[in-house]
Amino acid sequence: MKAGFAEIVITPPDHRCLLAGYGMPWSTGVHDDLSASAVYFEEGTTNALLVSFDLLAMERDLIARLKQAIQAVVPIPSGNIFFTCTHTHEGPEVRERKFRDRWGPHERPEYLDGYQRFLMERAAEVAVAAAAGAQECDLIVNRTHVDENVNRRFFLTDETYLSIPGNKHLLDVAHEHADKELGILAFCPTGSRRPFGLIVNYTMHPLTAGNTSTLISADVPGVVRGIVKESMGCPACYITGAAGDNHPKASEAGFAETRRVGEVLASEAIRRSADGMHVAGPLHLKCLTRSIRLRYRTWEDFQRIPLKGVGEEALAENFRRVEKPGEAIDVEFSLLAVGPVLFIGVPGEMLAELGSVLKWFSPFKRTYIMYQATESFDYIAHPNAFLWGGFEIVCAQLSPDSVRPLINAIIDAAEELTASKGGDQK
After folding, report:
1. Tens digits of per-residue pLDDT, 31-90?
2. Residue 396 within a domain
3. Most exposed residue of 92, 178, 340, 368, measured as fewest CB within 10 angstroms of its CB?
4. What is d(CA 121, CA 182) in angstroms, rounded to the nearest whole number?
């Protein structure tokens, strides 16, 4: 197998945009640059590309345009191009429906058309660079436990919902599920253990600095990439896992905390790449992109949400954001297998519990979720969460009965992938 890494800046050229999180304030400058990190793979006649964007999320139409821009310069099947978003809240909002459906106070901003074109140009450039740098490689894999995240869902004994970011004093007693696995893939020249590129996966909202300033920032992923490059002289592709309800332990604590958490994750990734397991070759590359027919939520679905901790006005506001209540829609997910490691691209903000379910049922020894990868249907929560309520449940777009079919379809596809001979599939 060959692999190639590249990184390119995607900070808005004029530094002016609506920041995607926390009510979409206007940016007032740049703290650190946003990036698109690309990894190109090639095995025999099969090739694939993975790009991680420092964006909150992307919708299907923009994803399709970005893929077309890449295909114009690098011959890769559409189903073999994989995107994911690190989910920084301190980057530009690029989702059309946020403005079309008036999720906030802003009209569609003038920067949006130009920035989307800029993203297309940058995506094409980074794809060309990653493909041009491809070299034969050995793969070293490892994983370690990093205690830097926490589940933000908290319920009192009367089942009232509280959110940890808004109730930081509850941090010490938060006990819901958190996925603390740091996944590490180190790609090395053949016969070497010195990486020319790393892929790092961790399940945590990048919100250490969120809502503390109006400066553009990649948050923790940017720090991780910077330290890996400084220390090892190679690029790193940072992928956020199923972080729908997993936050930093000190969310909204400012840029000093951003640096601290980024240093912890980067140091562990560097340290544990050194004693990782060398995967015996040959390495096989397998790709699969598939759709499943699922249903949008209805008003009746919303009315079943427990009202403790949330008011009816919030329900009505979020129901207005559901694009086509009750209608069925094709929902896409993607699978990328690199040797013994499976990456699953999901269509929104999957909760950590579901991410762990996919890991536990996966037919691959190592499985990692790619957050906000194929669409942005907001939160994808486990069925039990709909009985308890909470922020993630109020914001979910897909119906509660869509979750299990989606998970089952992903697991079935993963099992199918283990039996395939590789190549690109639809």
Report:
1. 999 999 999 999 999 999 999 999 999 999 999 999 999 999 999 999 999 999 999 999
2. yes
3. 340
4. 32
